[in-house]
Amino acid sequence: MIEFRLPSLGADMDEGMLVAWLVSPGDTVRRGQVVAEVESDKGIIEVECWEDGVVEDLLVTPGPTRLPVGFPLARLRTLDEGTAEEDTPSGPAAAARPEALVAAAPVWPGDEQTIVRHRGPSGPPRVTPPVRHLAHQLGVDLDHVLATGDDGVVRRADIIAARSQAEAGRPRATPMARRVARERGIDLDSILPVRNDGIITSAELTAPAAGVRAAPPPKSRPVGHEVPPVVVKSPPAPQEAPATDKMAAMRAAIARSMARSKREIPHYYLATHVDLGRAMQWLEDENGGRPITRRLLPAVLLLKATALALREVPELNGHWSDDAHHPSADIHLGVAVSLRGGGLVAPAIHHADRLDLDELMEALRDLVGRARTWRIRSSEMSDPTITVTNLGDRGVETTFPVIIPPQVAIVGFGKIADQAVVVDGMIGVHPVVHASLAADHRVTDGHRGGLFLDALVQLLQEPQNL
Amino acid sequence: MTILENAVATTTISYRDAMREAIRDAMLRDDRVFLMGEDVGSYGGCYAVSKGLLEEFGPERVRDTPLSESAFVGAGIGAALGGMRPIVEVMTVNFSLLALDQIVNTAALYLHMSGGQFNVPLVVRMATGAGRQLGAQHSHSLEGWYAHVPGLKVAVPATVEDARWMLATALEDPDPVIIFEHAGLYNTRGEIPAGAGPVDLQRARVRRSGTDISVITHGGSLPKVLAAADALHEEGISAEVLDLRVLRPLDTDAILASVRRTHRVVVVDEGWRSGGISSEVIARIVEGGLWELDAPVARVCTEEVPIPYARHMEEAALPQIPRIVRAAHEVLGA
Amino acid sequence: MSDKEHRQHLLARMLRIRRFEERCAELYQAEKIRGFLHLYIGEEAVAVGALESLTPDDAVVATYREHGHALARGLDPGSIMAEMYGKVEGCSRGRGGSMHLFDAAKRFYGGNAIVGGGLPLGVGLALADRMRGVQRVTAVFFGEGAVAEGEFHEALNLATLWHLPVLFCCENNGYAMGTALYRSESETHLTLKAAAYGMPAWSVDGMDVEAVEAAAHSAATAVRGGGGPHFLEFETYRFRAHSMFDPELYRDKAEVATWKLRDPLVTYRKKLSDEGHLDEAEWQAMEKEVKAEVDEAVSFAEAGTWEAVEDLTRFVHTEAVTG
Question: In the annotation, is B69 catalytic?
Answer without folding.
Answer: yes
